[in-house]
Amino acid sequence: MNGTFPIRSLAVAASVAGLALLLHPTVASSQGLPTITVGVGEATSPQQVSSALQVLFLLTILSVAPAILLMTTAFTRIVIVLSIVRQSMGTQQMPPNQILVSLALFLTFFIMTPVLTTINDTALQPYLKQEISQEQALERAVKPMREFMLAQTREAELGLLVEISGRPAPANHEEIQTMTLIPAFMLSELKKSFEMGFMIYIPFLVIDMVVASVLLSMGMMMLPPVIISLPFKLLLFVLVDGWGLIVGSLVKSFH
User: Fold this and answer.
1) Residue 219, by phi and psi: left (phi above 0), alpha (psi -120 to 50) or beta?
2) Between the N and C ends of the chain, which has fewer C-beta atoms within 10 Å?
3) Rounded to whole angstroms, how far apart are CA atoms 157 and 211?
């Protein structure tokens, strides 16, 4: 990973990736991306009406692009695993949601940097230099994102979505529709995140069971076991460098 890659370029490349995933190449070829100007006036030709509709279409896409982009990156797995960690420790709202989401976002950018760098080098910069057309830029931007999702998508989920779509089985990965690949990728991420969450939950569950058994044997049935087990779970988590292990496991799971 290039540590000197500008944050601004990375963010722009991420936006281009989200836009490219929403704009199918056939759509992009049939109607180009218009320039945006703010003004109110009477249309004097059908071309002006068409341009206004294109602007409305583009603004609609941009409004949902962040959500689509988050669902096609590493964010889903990371934020679910971090939420399960907090719940398994029983710390209620500590760390707060803002901290978990912020950590998940920065880890997502860290993991997706190679993909976004490729999009910036092969699609965004050539398009800004007017070396390629809009259609070519969108096609080049989609390719790295598809490769990332295909590498993380399981065959079972992909086969399920292909079967549900009713289309013939693709001969290779290039024939898989992007709209079929995205939900298959999301299902795979949900499955992997819950598998990781299950493994994280087991040590904390053992501590809860031991504390509950000790309290029961001492006849202290009115004392909630969570009050006694929470300090021990926090101590265990700190001693084994829990955050480092979890973040390291999350990053390595994408390689």
Assistant:
1) left
2) C
3) 40
